């Protein structure tokens, strides 16, 4: 009897000698060794959907900020969250099955152990970024989906957050929690309207230059702009740069959020003048960082930490001004990479609670879900704000007692709409920052002056086996190899305001070392010494 699962696996055989891992950002590696993985992800997506009684599951084909020759794939849960951990493990095992028969057997094993009725409908929604390999990999994925008998919707090119949005919309359609219309137009209309309402007549000052990393964010931003208030209507002047998706080899090259954050430099193609507000998206538009050059041509980065502090302070004001402070508290979630000055600012100036989690969006998201309002951002620009169900209800129910409260409440409600609750979204985050700056009447200089970052240094250390490095306390301390942490502590003691940690990368075969201290020289020195210890 024909076995469609084995046949699909046969069509896209796994290369010998490679091991795949579903990591913090799904499977990600050189695009030319991913065919078999995509087919198997198709099978897993169908199973996951069936396990959830036919809810829509998302599959995004992207390698985010990686070079053009890479690609990757990740799965999205029904409300737009990252894949459940247990299913990451199943995905990894499936990707590493050697023969078509093994794949088919494992497919049935999963169904059996998870009590999945294979007659349940499976629904999967798919999109990809603009990489040249995307079309081929989509074909491999579809072979898997068809073999598993899944219904699928292909949205073509989308940003990663747009795909998360579609998944959430499809699963909430027709319910009281409906998130929006599951179309691209629906996405632009929702966020465009929320932006206009959240501005509430305040005109953003100056313009904004947006570097789109030559990725999918370029054409999508150009489309979104059509739904935003025009300059004449009191809107924002947006200049789009690095939006060339015709030449896929230019993706993330000398541009994009990762380039700017890592090199602490504006993309060379930027023509922005002194004190002009600029931001950069990454290749799939789920990360954003801001920056500008001052009058002396010195570059200043306003990274995820800055976005978190800006947004937390704005939301704190709105909650207070609308009379909700007694019912709703705000917390900020960071990782160990957050600058010590940012943490101190949140705790001491904004007087908000800070949680620290391991690196990776899913950890931050999970911690933020436990808060009334959880503002979470990684320093690299991944992040968003999430509101608990009770908080959303309290905001919806609340009655303003005076015009001041009403004004704040209107802005708060529109701001909630403006934030992509499904996942961190560079385009929505960017509009949010613009709203906050407009209401505060702040320039980039004002924003920068809220606190001074401690000088810091990030180093990548190549080691023989990164798995030897095991951490605790949200990756801030090493438990293995034994004895190293004590030596790191001794080095930290030698500098003023020192802090340092080492952790195995989840995306590259290396250990990352972070150090900060009172001065540039001390931070550099500390980073070098810690790197020597882990080598
Ligand atoms: C992944 C994570 C990102 C994290 C980065 C760290 C997601 C969607 N992406 O790209 O949040 O900052 O890994 O990389 O979770 P590293 O482990 O190599 O330092
Ligand atoms: Zn990304």
From TrEMBL:
CDD domains (alphabetical)? PGM3 (cd03086)
Q: What does the record give as cofactor? A: Mg(2+)
Which pathway features in its UniProt record? Answer: Nucleotide-sugar biosynthesis; UDP-N-acetyl-alpha-D-glucosamine biosynthesis; N-acetyl-alpha-D-glucosamine 1-phosphate from alpha-D-glucosamine 6-phosphate (route I): step 2/2
Q: Where does substrate bind?
A: 378-380, 503-507, 512
Per the UniProt entry, the Enzyme Commission number(s) are 5.4.2.3
Query: Which GO molecular function annotation, any one, does this entry have?
Result: phosphoacetylglucosamine mutase activity
Q: Which residues form the Alpha-D-phosphohexomutase alpha/beta/alpha domain?
A: 57-86, 97-174
Q: Which GO annotations describe the biological process of this protein? A: carbohydrate metabolic process; UDP-N-acetylglucosamine biosynthetic process
| Residue ranges of every copy of the Alpha-D-phosphohexomutase C-terminal domain listed in the record | 460-532
Where is each Phosphoacetylglucosamine mutase AMG1 domain found? 183-289, 303-442
Family statement: Belongs to the phosphohexose mutase family.
Protein name according to UniProt: Phosphoacetylglucosamine mutase
């Amino acid at each position: 009897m024909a076995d469609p699962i084995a046949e699909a696996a046969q069509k896209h055989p796994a290369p010998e000698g490679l091991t795949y891992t579903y990591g913090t950002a799904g499977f990600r590696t050189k695009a030319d060794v991913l065919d078999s993985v995509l087919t198997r992800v198709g099978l897993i997506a169908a199973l996951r959907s069936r396990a959830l009684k036919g809810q829509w599951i998302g599959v995004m084909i992207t390698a985010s900020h990686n070079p053009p020759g890479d690609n990757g794939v990740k799965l999205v849960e029904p409300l737009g969250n990252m894949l459940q951990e247990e299913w990451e493990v199943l995905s990894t095992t499936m990707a590493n099955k050697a023969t078509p028969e093994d794949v088919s057997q494992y497919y049935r094993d999963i169904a059996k152990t998870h009590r999945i009725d294979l007659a349940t409908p499976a629904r999967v929604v798919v999109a990809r970024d603009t990489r040249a390999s995307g079309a081929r990999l989509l074909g491999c994925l579809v072979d898997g989906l068809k073999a598993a008998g899944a219904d699928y919707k292909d949205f073509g090119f989308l940003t990663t957050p747009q795909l998360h949005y579609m998944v959430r919309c499809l699963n909430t359609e027709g319910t009281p929690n409906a998130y929006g219309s599951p179309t691209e137009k629906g996405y632009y209309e929702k966020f465009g309207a929320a932006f206009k309402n959240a501005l509430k007549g305040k005109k953003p000052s100056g313009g904004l230059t947006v570097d789109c990393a030559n990725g999918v964010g370029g054409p999508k931003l150009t489309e979104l702009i059509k739904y935003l208030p025009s300059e004449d209507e009191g809107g924002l002047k947006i200049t789009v740069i690095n939006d060339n998706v015709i030449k896929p080899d230019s993706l993330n090259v000398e541009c994009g959020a990762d380039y700017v954050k890592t090199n602490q430099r504006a993309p060379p193609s930027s023509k922005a003048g002194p004190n002009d507000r600029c931001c950069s998206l990454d290749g799939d538009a789920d990360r954003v960082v801001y920056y500008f050059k001052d009058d002396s041509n010195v570059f200043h980065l306003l990274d995820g930490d800055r976005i978190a502090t800006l947004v937390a302070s704005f939301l704190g004001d709105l909650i207070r001004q609308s009379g909700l402070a007694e019912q709703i508290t705000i917390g900020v979630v960071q990782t160990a990479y957050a600058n010590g000055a940012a943490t101190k600012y949140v705790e001491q100036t904004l007087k908000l609670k800070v949680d620290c989690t391991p690196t990776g969006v899913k950890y931050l998201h999970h911690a933020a879900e436990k808060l009334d309002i959880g503002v979470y951002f990684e320093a690299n620009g991944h992040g968003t704000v999430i509101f608990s169900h009770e908080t959303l209800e309290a905001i919806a129910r609340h009655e303003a007692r005076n015009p001041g409260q009403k004004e704040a409440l209107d802005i708060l409600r529109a701001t909630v709409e403006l934030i992509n609750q499904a996942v961190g979204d560079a385009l929505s985050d960017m509009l949010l920052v613009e709203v906050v700056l407009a209401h505060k009447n702040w320039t980039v200089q004002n924003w920068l002056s809220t606190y001074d970052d401690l000088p810091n240094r990030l180093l990548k250390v190549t080691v023989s086996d990164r798995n030897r490095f095991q951490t605790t306390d949200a990756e801030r301390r090493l438990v293995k190899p034994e004895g190293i942490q004590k030596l790191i502590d001794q080095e930290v003691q030698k500098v003023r305001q020192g802090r340092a940690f080492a952790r195995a990368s989840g995306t590259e075969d290396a250990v990352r070392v972070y150090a900060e201290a009172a001065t540039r020289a001390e931070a550099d020195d500390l980073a070098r010494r810690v790197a020597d210890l882990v080598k």
